[in-house]
């Protein structure tokens, strides 16, 4: 499935017993040796009486994370299309708490992503205290960022134009900056108008993606805190547009956008693991292929 080109392998953990290691996730997410995706979503029964389901989110690097905006919409589409619920308002448990998904008549999904978290310790982000703008030293430069959690951590910086933004160079540096002890997703925001931004995102554990729902929320929060944006903003990402609404501190962020199913299938974990384990690519050629960016070869 995908939400604006941010793609997912969504696994039914309700009607089958699923146990995947971090290696399995990396292999499944690999675009040559596996199926290929930015994140893997695992749908399971909820432990929370207020929700019928929980869904777990794993980045392509195998790490489990707290929240995923595009993934939440795809989860809603999945449980509806699989006949697992007939509700229009679907409460779901995630690592960062309960969120409610609304499947609309037009096929779009509207999500209450909860209120943004601005206290540095809860992002987590190392800072002297809470502020609107934070200095961040990268290489020999001092840049200014906003820092927000949507259940998962986000840094947002303003750029003149997203096309020339240093996503590939600064993205990985900021993702692993010492001031973000759990790493961070990095948004490069171009303000077009009070109700319109362009955004490119280097995602924690996945690299640059075509869209990132939680960073779109975080960017609008930062833009409003910096008095640059209105309460309703069209966020144009490389994969398409999201509509984000935020009335101000303490209020929830609402995200509306599409969710598309592109394929259904069966992943043969046994053969995939065995075939990969016996793969005879010699280390040098694997490294060369990886270096050429042709594929992300799991270790
Ligand atoms: N890379 C994110 C998880 C996926 C978020 C993104 N795909 C979205 O749509 O919000 C993280 O490590 O927190």
Automatic annotation (TrEMBL):
Q: Which family does it belong to?
A: Belongs to the diaminopimelate epimerase family.
Instruction: Provide the primary localization.
Output: cytoplasm
Give a yes or no for keyword Isomerase in this entry: yes
Q: What is the enzyme's class at the highest EC level? A: isomerase
Q: Is rRNA-binding found in the keyword set?
A: no
Name the Gene3D superfamilies on file.
Diaminopimelate Epimerase, Chain A, domain 1
Q: Site described as Could be important to modulate the pK values of the two catalytic cysteine residues, positions?
A: 154, 203
Residue ranges, annotated region (Disordered):
276-299
Q: HAMAP family recorded for this chain?
A: DAP_epimerase (MF_00197)
Residues annotated as binding substrate are 6, 39, 59, 69-70, 152, 185, 203-204, 213-214
- The protein in question is named Diaminopimelate epimerase
Reaction it catalyzes: (2S,6S)-2,6-diaminopimelate = meso-2,6-diaminopimelate
Compartments where located: Cytoplasm
Alphabetized NCBIfam families for the sequence: DapF
Pathway field of the UniProt record reads: Amino-acid biosynthesis; L-lysine biosynthesis via DAP pathway; DL-2,6-diaminopimelate from LL-2,6-diaminopimelate: step 1/1
Q: Name one GO molecular function term.
A: diaminopimelate epimerase activity
Summarizing the function annotation, the protein's role is: Catalyzes the stereoinversion of LL-2,6-diaminopimelate (L,L-DAP) to meso-diaminopimelate (meso-DAP), a precursor of L-lysine and an essential component of the bacterial peptidoglycan.
State how it assembles.
Answer: Homodimer.
Q: Which InterPro entries match?
A: DAP_epimerase_AS (IPR018510), DAP_epimerase_DapF (IPR001653)
**Signal peptide location:** none
The source's domain of life comes to: Bacteria
Active site annotation, chain numbering: 68, 212
* Protein keywords: Amino-acid biosynthesis, Cytoplasm, Isomerase, Lysine biosynthesis
**What is the E.C. number?**
5.1.1.7
